[in-house]
């Protein structure tokens, strides 16, 4: 971290984050959202909150299916990009998921491993509490999260990826309860280094967080 900023506030607001993960594109989002909507069968007038929406690819597609969608993210750069698609029933705002949003929804989505970034179980619980508070009665929360055991057993310690002419040097290691990814590269005449750190939250721990709220687990899945 630099200047006491949390790692995700810098990395997620960097254009290089979106270059590295550009393979997570609209077609990938469309496939996932179609499967999800088929399974949860929301009402035609359901209101969605896409929590940690990034540049809005999932929110945009959900809206194209006829749903009212609010997308929020901590990154001003991502929200600035997403706002070019904004309209009456598709809106975007900068927002920290640790705080309740100022409205309620029928479905709250927390996708692409957008949990476990924080420094304490208390903050994890704070996020779950906020999700709970943003749901209408009988609302649905969908969390798309890594499989902690699979990540540990299939960890790739080092790799290089060349994307848009940039060579990303990536290392991964387990540090305590976290999987830590170091990302180094040169671009535009400068050297960059970013860190990703995600807690290896397991299913029984999610159950514990949810049990402290009105939420309960109805289904779990192994893939999309």
Précis, in short:
This protein has 224 residues and is α/β, with parallel strands linked by helices.
What are the SSEs and their pairings?
Elements: H1 7-11, H2 15-20, H3 26-40, E1 47-51, H4 57-64, E2 68-73, H5 76-82, E3 90-94, E4 105-110, H6 121-133, E5 135-143, H7 148-153, E6 158-163, E7 166-175, E8 178-187, E9 190-199, H8 203-211
Parallel strand pairs: 1-2, 1-4, 2-3, 4-5
Antiparallel strand pairs: 6-7, 7-8, 8-9
Helix pairs in contact: 3-4
Summarize the structure in words.
With 224 residues, the chain is α/β, with parallel strands linked by helices. 31% of the residues lie in helices and 30% in strands. It is built from 8 helices and 9 strands. It has a 5-stranded parallel sheet. Strands 6-7-8-9 form a 4-stranded antiparallel sheet. It starts with 6 loop residues before the first helix and ends in a 13-residue tail after the last helix. The relative contact order is 0.14. The mean pLDDT is 93.
Number of DSSP helical runs: 8
Unreliable stretches, pLDDT < 50, 5 or more residues?
A: none
User: Given the C-alpha coordinates, what overall shape results?
Assistant: globular
Overall residue-averaged pLDDT value: 93
Biggest sheet character: 5 strands, parallel
Per DSSP E runs of 2 or more residues, the count of β-strands stands at 9
**Which structural class is indicated by helix and strand composition?**
alpha/beta
Name some characteristics of this structure:
single chain; 224 residues; alpha/beta; five-stranded parallel sheet; four-stranded antiparallel sheet; 8 helices; 31% helix; 30% strand
């Amino acid at each position: 971290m630099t200047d006491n900023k949390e790692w995700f506030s810098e990395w997620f607001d960097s254009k290089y984050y979106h270059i590295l993960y550009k393979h997570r594109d609209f077609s990938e989002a469309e496939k996932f959202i179609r499967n999800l909507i088929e399974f949860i069968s929301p009402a035609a007038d359901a209101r969605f909150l896409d929590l940690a929406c990034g540049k809005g690819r999932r929110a945009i597609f959900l809206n194209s299916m006829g749903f009212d969608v609010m997308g929020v993210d901590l990154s001003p750069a991502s929200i600035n990009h997403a706002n070019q698609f904004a309209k009456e029933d598709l809106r975007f705002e900068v927002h920290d998921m640790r705080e309740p949003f100022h409205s309620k929804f029928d479905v709250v989505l927390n996708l692409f491993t957008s949990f476990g970034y924080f420094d304490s179980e208390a903050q994890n619980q704070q996020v779950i509490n906020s999700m709970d508070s943003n749901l209408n009665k009988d609302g649905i929360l969908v969390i798309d999260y890594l499989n902690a055991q699979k990540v540990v057993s299939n960890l790739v310690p080092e790799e290089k990826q060349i994307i848009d002419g940039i060579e990303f040097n990536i290392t991964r290691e387990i540090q305590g309860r976290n999987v830590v990814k170091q990302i180094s590269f040169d671009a535009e005449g400068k050297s960059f280094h970013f860190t990703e750190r995600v807690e290896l939250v397991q299913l029984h721990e999610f159950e514990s967080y949810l049990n402290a709220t009105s939420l309960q687990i109805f289904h779990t899945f192994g893939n999309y």
